[in-house]
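=== RUN LOG ===
request id: a7f3
mode: sequence -> structure
chains: 1
length: 230
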Amino acid sequence: MEVLPKFDSVFSIDCVIFGFDEGELKILLIERNVEPFKDWWALPGYLVKENESLDLAAERILYELTGLRDIFMEQFYTFGDVDRHPQGRVITVAYYAMIRLNGPKELKPVTSVARKAVWYPVKDLPKLAFDHTKIFQKGFLKIRNKISYQPIAFELLPEKFTLTQLQHLYEVILNKTLDKRNFRKKMLNYGILKELDEKQKGVSYRAAKLYKFDRRKYAKIFQNELSFGK
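=== RESULT ===
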C-alpha cells in the first residue's frame, strides 16, 4: 500500500470586528509588538496551532490579542496570495463579527504579540500590516451587502435605540444619505420594531421615542426576506 506524503500547511486567522459607538462605526485593531510589522496597526490575527480547528483558533486568537471572549464570529473569506506574508506562504481565514460597544468590553491583550488593542474609527483607518487593509475592505463590503437584506444593524445598536440612531447607522455603513421619512416609514411597516413607552434621557434636545428589535417576530414573519436600506 502506497504511503502518501504528509503535507505541511501554515494557516492563520484574522478577525474583522465591527462596533458602533458615539455615532461612529469602528474596527478593532491591535498594535503589533513582534516582527514582522512591529509597531504597526493590524487586525487581531495569528497562526493556527497544529491540532486546532479554525473556529477554536479564532476564539483563542481574539481573546489572546484583545481580551474579548464569547464573541460569535463567522468565516467570510480566505486569503491565499503567495506573497502576503514576508516569511513564507501563509493562508489566512478571515472571520467577522458585529458587536455593541455600550457594555463592559475591556480590551486587554494577554499575550506579548499585541502591545494594545483599540477601537479605531473606520473613517480614519490607518495603513495596516500585511494585507490587512484588503481583508478589512472585504469585511466592510460583506456587512454593507448584508445589511441590505438582513437586520444585522441591530447587532451594533444598544438594546434600546431611536429611529435617528438606526438611520444614522445605515447611512454610515451604506455611505449614503437616506430620506428620513421614507426610511422611518419602511422600518415601521416591516413590523419588527417594538415601540417602547420610554424616551431618551439626559439629552439637551427634544427626547425621541425608544424602540427595540423584535427578533422573535422577525424570525417568524420574514425569515430573511426583508430588503433594508434601499
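=== NOTES ===
The chain has a mean pLDDT of 89.
The chain has five helices and nine strands.
=== END ===
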